[in-house]
Amino acid sequence: MKTEYAIQAKNISKTFHITEDAHNTVKHRLFNLFKPSKAKKVLALKPMDFEVKKGECIGLIGSNGCGKSTLTRILSGVYPTDTGKININGTTMLMNLGVGMSHELTARENIYVASSVLGLKIKQVDELFDEIVDFAELREFIDTKIKYFSSGMKARLAFSIAVNAGADIMFLDEIFAVGDMKFQEKAVRVFEMSWIKGKTVILVSHSMDIIQKYCNRTAYLKNGELVYYGDTEHALNLYKQDNQIVVEESLVL
Amino acid sequence: MVTGIINDWAHQTNKLERLWLLAKIEFKLRYYENRLGLLWALLKPVMDMAIYYVVFKIVLKVDVPAFASYLFIGLILWNFFVESTSGTIQILQTKKYLYEYSNMNKLEIYISTLLANTIGFGFNLLMFLIFYNLLEPESVGLQFTNLWIPVVFLNLFILSLGISLILSNVFVVARDVTQLWGVFTSILFFMSPIFYKLAMFKEALPSFEYLNPIAGLIINARRVLMEGVNPDFNLLLFDFFYGIFFLVIGFILLNKLGSKAAEKI
Fold it and tell me: Cβ-count burial of B162 within 10 angstroms (0-12 exposed, 13-18 middle, 19+ buried)?
């Protein structure tokens, strides 16, 4: 049987050019035509292959600054890759604290726009609409522009849209930190019920328990390098080992 | 590369729906936010027209027959062009929320915004037709050649989309393109036969209507709407060529620069 891939990436890498004096205008470029720019290259991701099968739940672990977020952005098609090729089948959603929303639009408009971007038809949004509103607990503010919302309300709305609409491929970056305890519990329940089955999920988390509980396979990143990609247990062990050494070293010092 | 964008765009079934949804919301945002609402969309060309009419007809005594209508049609075409180019330079910044979390095709953002402008243009054109046929004393009435106007407008749409793509993607690497284009549009405005008599324009700037696509479009719009003759096909062909040329460059820039918008803006 042929396996269907949600994402196939071959030899992808990413380098960021960080300049102190950004040549952001025509004027600046003209005046500094002969001055070499002092761009600092940061190799955020070393060349790697990465593929995700349809319906899989993939974990992504690594310490801060190791390239997890960069990798999710490339795999979701938000950033272009510098080398290699990437094939994405379906709509993607990059979610750290929800979906993209415009502050100029009302909650209702944002629900429609965001769900549509995630690949839903207007009819489907009509059906889901009440569910999204009730889940976010924002019934009485539905026609208010979200620039007047508190940050908690915004987060709840964004999360609710993401949870209920859902793209084909979801990148979840530390999502279990939204809202109060009650809301978190609700979120986890939806996550388990509808996403683990049926959707392709890439889960970024520092919580070992969450990765261990949900992921079939896990990738371990270290300094922009894909150290290991496969069995979750093994990846977590590698991660723990590396971190232990750091802790011991700091103790010696 | 270009076919890649188009293939990807046509692949998903909810895309047309989404374009329309985004266009409607964009249109609403623009006109329903202020007190006058939709009235403002209709009022603006009328007010522009009144100003130019006073200056050129009453003060400078230009002798163009049906001058109010002459101005009106020139201005609504020009306004669409300016709104769709100057108005969209920063589109990748203002609409960032649409593409920074997903792999939505950026081309849709452009098309939906231009569709919103098209709705506005439609209202303006309707106003023009009412004005021309009911109020203009020198009107030649409705003609079959009026049916050419969608073709002329399609040309304007393609041209505006192409230039919009070029400007907004250059904006990703050069922010002062806004100012440069501002200067350029005011030159272009005076280089287009919006309020001059066409013969005067042709005498002063021979063959210039072939160099300036906006001039050609305005000339053809007047031919089909006010003179009851077919468009100048040479000119129309030239302008379609310009439109498609800019559109191709726009696509190339969207691929080269626009794809990096999420990290650069």
Answer: buried
